[in-house]
Amino acid sequence: MRILLCCKAGVTSNMFAAALKDEASKKGLEVLVWAAAETAVEYSINQADIVLVTPQLKSSLSKFEDLADGETPVLLISDDDFTQFNAEKVLKEALDAKKK
């Protein structure tokens, strides 16, 4: 599974992407996770199986949904999950959304 993390280009989102990779690895899942700045998302969104949006970009959620192909789930990470680095919960939500 390929997960794109849309962010404002901060260091925190790269750290969160690493936490998601670690969580997937613990579960024995092959997951590619990368972070892209809001301005660069359009260049790699079509390569993603799921798109995660950081809370800072809440107002741009519909833009990412429009850029996605309609079959690619686009999920907003909650403030709490992002600030607490709850990668386990976010990964589970991503996997569940992809199964639908």
TrEMBL record:
One of its GO terms (biological process) is phosphoenolpyruvate-dependent sugar phosphotransferase system. The modification Phosphocysteine is found at C7. The keyword Phosphoprotein applies. Residues 1-100 form the PTS EIIB type-3 domain. Keywords: Kinase, Phosphoprotein, Phosphotransferase system, Sugar transport, Transferase, Transport. PROSITE patterns: PTS_EIIB_TYPE_3. The keyword Phosphoprotein applies. GO terms for molecular function: kinase activity; protein-N(PI)-phosphohistidine-sugar phosphotransferase activity. This is PTS EIIB type-3 domain-containing protein. It comes from Eggerthia catenaformis OT 569 = DSM 20559. The lineage of its organism: Bacteria, Bacillati, Bacillota, Erysipelotrichia, Erysipelotrichales.
